[in-house]
Amino acid sequence: MRVLAAAWLLLALGASALAEPVHFKDCGSEVGVIKEVNVSPCSIQPCHLQKEQSYTVNVTFTSSTESQGSKAKVYGILMGVPVAFPIPESDGCKSGVNCPIEKNKTYSYLNKLPVKSDYPSIKLVVKWELQDDKGKCLFCWEIPVQIES
Description:
Elements: H1 2-18, E1 20-21, E2 25-26, E3 32-40, E4 47-50, E5 53-63, E6 70-78, E7 81-84, E8 106-115, E9 123-132, E10 137-148
């Protein structure tokens, strides 16, 4: 377990060194406050996401509630319709957030956003939520992206 924790810490430190803060829209963080969203690499917005590449997402947030666990949900919004977007790990407690989550504590959530080759080349909005164990959003943010070949 310590090796896993050490590996996450190294990944988080490496990702934060290369991460680019992005301008985001808060889309309904009910029980948390987003401090910063980083996507790496993303040097300009909209983020240009290349197919067959994986992007690191790091969100620093402060919880305003207690929760035993957390679950991430990611969507691509196309013409106003959210379409579920698979991520490698939906359990926030396995993505850098030390659970149980405590009120008024700041956390660093870290995950990957893989862009599959069969995704269409299109502009869309990525919506990323992390929900507590009652289904309320610890954070919810949106950014525009461009998927490219």
